[in-house]
């Protein structure tokens, strides 16, 4: 299974398999992060040195390699090694996502279906010190482990003796952990690997910080000039623990009024409607697999929650993100002159549908799903829209449609 990964949602077992999306970043390699220490030589029992792994971390961060390659290298540093990079909500263990290397599908399916609930190592996740590599004998004594259902019915049949891992970050109750299981039981040799994880952990944490804090991630969503402002729709981008990541000017105006949305003393976004708040809380779970959008009408204002699809690595490092669209009644999201606009530019029904989707803040994927057509079909219809209207982007298209629907005096 080298070169591929499985995305594991414990609440719904295995959901899909596919190629890892590589991270695009700066065009020059970062340097100087090894702290001046020479770990380049091979260490007993390890196939790949610290330098090998550290170079691969930054190569993956810059898009020159994949994170799958990094996990595969870790797996190769232990006999029968299999590795998982996972994040879990310690308050809700079922809220769990992971990316794996070299596990067989039946191993993951049986773990997801039952054995996650019998794993004695998981309860220690929240207690682990960030950046300190450990192996499982240091967490649960072997004499105690061999008496458990988890060991006898899952670990042993799958030729697993020990787990070796490190907590990269705790993320306010949702720790990010990388762990390699191995058939090797020798504590001395396993400690060599755990020591290596301690040494490379700072570099993994830098990578995690990049994903969480990089302003580049929202560069294409400049809320000060957002297409949503052209249709008088407020936008709030909400991250893990209901924290506001960014907010558009119209969204800020609505937040300041406090009638429909507000912020708690702990900085969490609150929605006035109970159903809307419940939907937001559910969408902010890492294991959420429900509908991508949910709409609510409160006091004549339409609230739409959009669970944002993102790169899988972004989900692991950054956590879930939800966009809240706030559309006051009478806003031009339902453009009164859309029929005239479509007739004037001789739009087909498909092109009109694509235009309405853009106006209402839908992504190409969402428009395609709602219309039961392919994403390529919607892309083709948008290109045709640009050609017929003489525009070059969605923003240009919205400006034109808005001016036609709201002509000046």
| Strand-residue proportion | 15-25%
* Rg, nearest Å: 25 Å
Q: Which structural category do the helix and sheet elements fall into?
A: alpha+beta
Low-confidence stretches: 1-41, 215-231, 330-336
Strand order of the largest sheet: 2-1-4-3-7-6-5
Total E-strand runs: 14
Taking the alpha carbons of the first and last residues, their distance comes to: 65 Å
Q: What is the global morphology?
A: elongated
Please explain how this structure is put together.
It is built from 14 helices and 14 strands. By secondary structure, the chain is an alpha+beta fold. The protein folds into 3 domains: 5-213, 2-Layer Sandwich (Beta-Lactamase); 217-333, 2-Layer Sandwich (Beta-Lactamase); 335-409, Winged helix-like DNA-binding domain superfamily/Winged helix DNA-binding domain (Arc Repressor Mutant, subunit A), CATH 1.10.10.10.
Blueprint of the fold:
Elements: E1 5-9, E2 14-18, H1 50-61, H2 67-75, E3 82-89, E4 92-101, H3 105-113, E5 134-135, H4 142-145, H5 149-155, E6 162-169, E7 176-182, H6 187-213, E8 234-238, E9 244-247, H7 249-257, E10 261-263, E11 269-271, H8 274-283, E12 293-298, E13 301-307, H9 312-318, E14 322-327, H10 338-344, H11 349-359, H12 364-371, H13 375-389, H14 394-405
Antiparallel strand pairs: 1-2, 1-4, 3-4, 3-7, 5-6, 6-7, 8-9, 8-14, 10-11, 12-13, 13-14
Can you give keywords for this protein?
single chain; 409 residues; alpha+beta; Beta-Lactamase; Arc Repressor Mutant, subunit A; seven-stranded antiparallel beta sheet; five-stranded antiparallel beta sheet; 14 helices; 36% helix; disordered N terminus
